[in-house]
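Project standup — Tuesday

K.O.: blocked on the structure for the chain from last sprint. Re-posting the sequence here as requested.
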Amino acid sequence: MASHFNILIVGGGQAARRAAFAAHTALVHGTIGILGEEPHPPYDRPPLSKQALLRADGIEACTIIDSGTYAQANIRLLLGDAVVRVQRDQHLVHTRAGDQYHYDRLVLATGSRPRRLPLPDEISHDVFYLRTKDDAVRLGARLRAGARVVVVGAGFIGLEVAAAARSLECQVDVIDRAPHVLSRILPAHASQAVQAFHRTAGVGLHLGAALDRISRNATGGLCITLTQADERPLTLQADILVVGIGVVPNVELAQEAGLEVGDGILVDACGRTSDPDVLAGGEVTAHPVAGRAGRHRIESWQVAELQAEAAGATAAGAPKTYESLPWFWSDQSDLNIQMLGHTPANAHWVLRGPKDAAHSWFALDREQRIVGVVSFNSGRDISAARRAIQSRRRIAPELLADPARAWRELLSQPAPDAHHPLR
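H.V.: unblocked you, prediction finished:
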């Protein structure tokens, strides 16, 4: 006979953990199950590209809650098995191992998987993707002083791995088709600080470059050929290749179950899908975003925490709305990058602080209101900007640009003349 849960959560990551404990808070005596494909209890992924690569015990930083805490909360961990089918009309899920589970409410926290390059099988031993604890352990074992590491992709994962590898005295090169790093997130002028940081650390950046071929060289290593931005060919020799070219949301289970799916599982602000008894949480969702129209899929720690929490609480009968401003962060060795809000293409950018030290770029709309910020080693600017964005306070650009002006003063200044908006 199939087991029954008041709340059944599919997925074993950070979003599943947050949804489960939010559901437990709202439904103290309810039965809650987490069905995870990995053998590990739910864990957070940010340390995988940082602490987990830098030291032997770093993988422990991923685990926030031990198994005993789940048991105390009446949350049952069903690990090492994957859901292969959802029968919504029967409130039933089927697993790869042949087990069946009934649910009152289902939460899909299926996350995403790395986007892969079409590479020959004969080099697979030296190719790495970073998504799981096992991936991090495997990659960390190869990051030794003098190892030649080539990273494809200058996004967060690629640059965090590059920073960790350089800290371990590896030789590192990063390849990306885009003309600047973090091209999907940062405007070119802000990415210059990131590029300068990595080049100073000894990372070779090959931007605007096209990857042509990867093969074995005569000594058994990897031979990587590319065409540079100026169309000159370049060959790199490597011991390992790390691929970080984005992720694909795991929407197949929801799609096959007949739920509404776009770039992610479509949900409302509380995490509800098109089926009132099925919710979704974490970066697999396309959800309403504060300050933007429509629904969007955002890959961030905050979404895995707070949006999943809203879905879990709502599933347990205590509807909660996710309405946080988008916030991202990345630690790359000694460089902390934080982004808050939105950075529209027509924004007026204001620099606060010296480029060679802690500084931030602020995106202002035509009415001189801060709508977004990119900060480098300046968390205080993020905290103050959050207050400014939420209050929709107008701040004169020349005052914002002066780091000698304290935030307390800026947030208490009379609004600038509304008749002279930015153009």
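K.O.: great, moving the ticket to review. Residues 301-315 form the longest helix (15 residues). The mean pLDDT is 95.
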